[in-house]
């Protein structure tokens, strides 16, 4: 490494080999460079750049920015309002706690927002997006993307439900399999002058809608667009 980590604000550059770098406390800037690197930000508002290779980046506490670069990278934001950018190839991004922004970039990416209100953008490739808890806004990008929902991932109401901004009918899918629903528990409601759709779900069978998904600029949505 070009610099040894300290408890302060560090600038650390990895070697051409496979590095393990822990920035410890402080607002650190860590670049892995070549090789399959493991970068750990620790406490502080850190910038982690994987570079080439299949890298693993862990932001830790506070508000971090993680950039995977080239290769199949694994990015974990941890606690705080983090920004994660996968880059090229197929990456795995997990926001963790806080209001996070995730961008998969090119490749077939797996994205999990985590807790709080997150923004997920898949980009190129067939991406798999899970918003997690909170009111999340998700954009799949090009090709047929899959949006996963679990119990508690969304709520009912205009200011509470998750939003998918670019759902493509007949190409994208919404996976509700973990909710154990049947077709009678799902309805489709148009809004915004009929230009968009809300999927309304009664998860517990009491005839009260308690789970909604808003699909902006999507019409003609049907059960064939869902995986139940």
UniProtKB/TrEMBL annotation:
InterPro entries (alphabetical): Hemolysin-typ_Ca-bd_CS (IPR018511), Hemolysn_Ca-bd (IPR001343), Peptidase_M10B_C (IPR013858), RTX_toxin/Mannuronan_C5-epim (IPR050557), Serralysin-like_metalloprot_C (IPR011049), T1SS_VCA0849 (IPR019960)
Protein's name in the database: Calcium-binding protein
Keywords from the UniProt entry: Repeat, Secreted
UniProt organism field: Sphingorhabdus profundilacus
Gene Ontology MF annotations: calcium ion binding
Keyword Secreted: yes
Top-level taxon of the source organism: Bacteria
GO cellular component, one term: extracellular space
Cofactor(s) needed for function: Ca(2+)
Predominant location category: secreted
Domain spans labelled Peptidase M10 serralysin C-terminal: 23-218
Secreted in keyword set: yes
Protein's cellular compartments: Secreted
Stretch forming the signal peptide: none
């Amino acid at each position: 490494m070009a610099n040894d980590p300290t408890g302060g604000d560090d600038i650390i550059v990895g070697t051409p080999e496979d590095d393990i770098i822990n920035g410890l406390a402080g607002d650190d800037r860590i670049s892995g460079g070549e090789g399959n690197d493991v970068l750990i930000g620790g406490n502080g508002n850190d910038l982690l750049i994987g570079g080439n290779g299949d890298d693993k980046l862990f932001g830790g506490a506070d508000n971090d920015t993680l950039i995977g670069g080239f290769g199949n990278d694994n990015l974990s934001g941890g606690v705080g309002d983090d920004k994660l950018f996968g880059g090229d190839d197929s990456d795995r991004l997990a926001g963790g706690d806080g209001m996070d922004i995730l961008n998969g970039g090119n490749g077939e990416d797996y994205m999990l927002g985590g807790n709080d209100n997150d923004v997920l953008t898949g980009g190129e490739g067939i991406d798999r997006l899970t918003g997690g808890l909170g009111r999340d806004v998700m954009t799949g990008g090009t090709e047929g993307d899959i949006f996963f929902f679990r119990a508690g991932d969304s709520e009912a109401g205009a200011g509470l439900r998750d939003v998918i901004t670019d759902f493509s009918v007949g190409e994208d899918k919404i996976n509700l399999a973990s909710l154990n629903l049947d077709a009678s528990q799902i309805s489709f409601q148009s809004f915004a002058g009929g230009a968009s759709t809300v999927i309304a779900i009664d998860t517990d069978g009491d005839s009260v809608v308690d789970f909604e998904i808003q699909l902006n600029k999507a019409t003609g949505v049907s059960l064939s667009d869902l995986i139940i």
